[in-house]
Every structure is written in structure tokens, then in C-alpha cells.
Amino acid sequence: MDQPATHNSPRTWLITSALTPLAIRLIRQLLAHGDYIVACLPPQEIEHEDRSAEFRELINECKSNRKDREGWKDRIRPIRCDSRVMGQCGAAVAEAVQIFGRIDIMLCCRAEAVVGTVEELSTNPATQNLVRDQFETVYFSQVNFIKAALPQLRAQHTGHIMVLTSIGGHIGTPGMSFYTAAVWALEGFCDSLAYEIAPFNIKMTIVQPNKEILSLTNKLIFSPPLPQYEADLNPAPNIRDVLSTVLNSNPDTYIEQSEDEIQFRYPKLPPATLDKLVMETVHALTAIGGHENPPARHIVGFEGAIAVKEKLKTVTEELEDFVEVSLAVDIFDSELKAEARKGRSEMEDTQGMGVGEISSGAGMGGFPGMGPMS
Question: What is the pLDDT of residue 358?
């Protein structure tokens, strides 16, 4: 394994959180392809019997005598690792290299979501600590793994870092403000890091599925609600009610919102539902992972792409609406200023046309009138 793996040859993956339904289905695909897997297991999750049950089934499957599972047990290495601790991340990377010789692809996929409005997460020290915990899990844990792996990837002069976030990197969600903030922090870090590591032939890709892909396959933490934000008093979309409805469809995860207790659940969806929910993202990861020229960002799924397009369209329209305010601070006239004014004029002309006059034009990919989805 001294030579860099090509996209279609066996590769070594390091997966930073391997107990999720998405990660387990991905591992099956990778093992069937002939790849090598270092599967990192967060201690808090491996000790949760329900959360770790599916991974234990996978390991038993790898050890079985099934002909179509031959060799699997030799190509997967589970490692207990708390990614919030930098030293443990470094030890996991070292063990991966010792066992398999290199790391071709690192998938950063640790996630959990704190549910609560900004005010609900500011009521007491316990809820305030949830904010710190949110950043520890979504941001710092993945940054720790990336920092730990960089010396190895740089020495190899090759490698691919993939970071699984969500379209929350573009679109905010009421009731998940701090989850969204942590995702934006991670994506901003990755955008900057990509320029630093490019000279070492290390690639970076942010993969953005719909928010429910990670929300419904990872830990959900609910802060105590405030009555002022109940649906009948506040018109903002209530993600708490949406997630509670999903959890309450299974007696094992039923939750009744508490006014004074922090609660958490791991969603338990039927296997067929989980397959439908995550397999599109799994296929995207296998297709992009290790690609010679991977995208900097990949939005998974039709609905996610439409939602992001609509958000970018809104940003562009607001930029054009206030272009004169932006240009007012410029000291010197320039060609760019003239182009900016021209762009606004053209947009106003386009908006003044009839539907029939612009129906054949590009712009939103043929999806007019679609509002952003969260």
C-alpha cells in the first residue's frame, strides 16, 4: 500500500464517527468494494446499548463465515476514540497508519443537534453549557481529527478530507441556531484550510445533505421550552414539534417536553426508512471519496439543491437592491463600480419582463417560485 490509491482501487478510510446508521451503511459499501476502514467509536455512544447495536451486528457479520463477507474482518479496525480529546485523535491516526500503512480518505461525520431557541439556551448554566457542548461535538471534535491527520497526509503528499455537514451551512433553522452556528464555523474552517493544504495535494470536500439526514440519525438534545415560543403564540416554524413527532412515532423514543429538564434521544427509525433517508448520501460519499478532482462542495439531493439555489438567489437580489449603498463607501471610481450598477440595471429590466419573455432563460434551473426549505 505504498502507492497512492486510485479512485477505483482499494483505499483506506478513517471515519471519525462510525456508529451512525449512515456510517454503518457506508462501511458495508466500502468493505464490499475492498476498501480498508478505521472506524472510530465515540465512548459515549458505544456505551449506549441501542446506539451501538447496529454496529455490533456489522462486526458479527464481518466475522461470519458468509462467502460474501470473506476478508471483511481483516479490513476493518474499530478504535474507541473521543474526538473531543486531541491526543486520542492523534492516537487513532497513528494506529490507522500502523495497521493499514496510510490514510487515503478521512470522513469527518460526528454530529448531534441541540434543539432550542437562543433564549431557551440562555436561561441557566446547564442550558448555556449545551451551547459549548454543541461546538465541542460539531466543530472542535472534527477540527481535532483534521489537525491530527494533516502531518500524515502532508507526508504522503496525497489525501482527501471529506466533511459531512448539511445544507444548514447555507440556511438557518429556527430552534437550531447553535447547531447551525457550529456547522457554519466548521465550513468556514474548511474553506480556509483548503487553500493551505492544496500545495500538498490534499483535497477538501464539504458534503451537504438535507438537515434531516444527520438530525434523524444522531443524538437530539432538547432544552426546556419557554411558553413564549409555543406554536400558538409564535409563528416561527417549530422544529421542536417536528422532531418530537418523529420521535413519538416509536414508543421506545417517546418524549414529552419538560419545562425544567434537559432531555435527549437517539431516533429509532425502521430499517427501510433509514435506507431511504441516508443511501443517497452514502452513494455520494462513495462516488466522491478519493476522486482525483473532487468538488469543494457537494449538495446531496434535488430538494437540497433547490433550497440552496433559492437562498443564493435571495442573497443576490438583496445585494443588487443595496448596490448603491455598497458603492457609496468607495473612494475612487472604477470599472467595477460601473459593472455593479449595470448588473443592477439588468436585473431590474429582467424583473420587469413578462413570464413568457424569460421562461426560456437560465437562472434557477427551471424551478421558479420554489421557496427555500429548511
Answer: 31
User: How does 298-312 read in b/e, with b if 16+ C-beta sit within 10 Å?
Assistant: bbbbeebbbbbbbbe
Three-state helix/strand/coil letters over 274-332:
HHHHHHHHHHHHHHHCCCCCCCCEEECCHHHHHHHHHHHHHHHHHHHHCHHHHHCCCCC
Helices (H), 157-270: 177-197, 211-215, 239-247
Distance of CA 247 to the CA centre of its chain: 21
CB within 8 A of 314, min separation 6: which ones?
A: 372
- Percent of the chain's residues with pLDDT above 70: 86
- CA-based nearest residue to 40, from 12, 74, 15, 73: 15
Residue-level pLDDT at 4 = 55
- The single-letter DSSP state of residue 137 is I
pLDDT for position 43: 95
**What is the 3-state secondary structure of 158-177?**
CEEEEEECCHHHCCCCCCEH
What's the pLDDT band for 364 if we cut at 50, 70, 90? Answer: very low
Rg (CA), the chain: 23
> CA 26, CA 23: separation in Å to the nearest integer?
5
Question: Distance between CA atoms of 331 and 349, rounded to whole angstroms?
Answer: 28
